[in-house]
Design a protein that fits this description.
196 residues, mainly beta, 5-stranded mixed sheet, 3-stranded antiparallel sheet, 14 strands
């Protein structure tokens, strides 16, 4: 059992600095207070319980410094290296271990300027370790119709650790156009005018 001494800060409030290893857990069961008079002489020590905290139900402090992981899974390309219509990007977010869990998943889409953004998942209370969502990339003549459509995803866990990933896509939904058509040939003697 580890005991940590509390020191006075400049406002005469008690404080403690806890040292920890990455992804470790500290459980607080009770607190010992040392009483002193104005001259600094010790008057006694007493262990105090904290409401709702016991050996069977300790106050649990978790140190989580690991970033959640992200996997982006775009659907199959329409032709060659291009999409020519709306497409989807799957998002798998994972927060490993017995620690905080995923709190928020956000995304932005841009093609030079921001075209779409949103929140795929948000829950401050549920301890979700794995979340799977889908982004729908909306393609029009004016937006997300370039060789530089960027989808960026940000995942934040409940301890505030953040990770981001992005992919760049080529999109062309503009059909080709014909300015003019010219036919070269010899008019058959028996053909009607305009026919070959």
């Amino acid at each position: 059992q580890r005991v940590k001494q509390l020191d006075n800060d400049q406002n005469n409030k008690k404080q403690a600095t806890l040292t920890y290893e990455n992804n470790s857990t500290i459980e607080i069961v009770r607190i010992e207070l040392k009483y002193q008079n104005q001259n600094g002489q010790e008057m006694g020590r007493n262990w105090h319980t904290v409401d709702g905290v016991s050996v069977d139900s300790p106050l649990r402090i978790v140190f989580d410094t690991d970033k959640p992981s992200i996997n982006l899974a775009p659907e199959a390309l329409d032709y060659g290296e291009f999409y020519n219509d709306n497409f989807t990007v799957g998002v798998d977010a994972v927060d490993e271990g017995d620690y905080s869990g995923i709190q928020t998943i956000k995304y932005t889409i841009s093609d030079g300027t921001s075209t779409q953004e949103g929140t795929l998942y948000s829950d401050a209370d549920e301890v979700a370790k794995t979340i799977t969502e889908t982004i729908n990339v909306e393609v029009t003549e004016e937006t997300n119709n370039s060789d530089n459509v960027i989808v960026e995803v940000i995942v934040i866990d409940r301890a505030g650790n953040e990770n981001k990933d992005s992919r760049t896509f080529k999109v062309n939904c503009t059909p080709p156009s014909l300015d003019s058509v010219t036919i070269d040939g010899t008019l058959h003697a028996e053909a009607q005018e305009g026919y070959y």
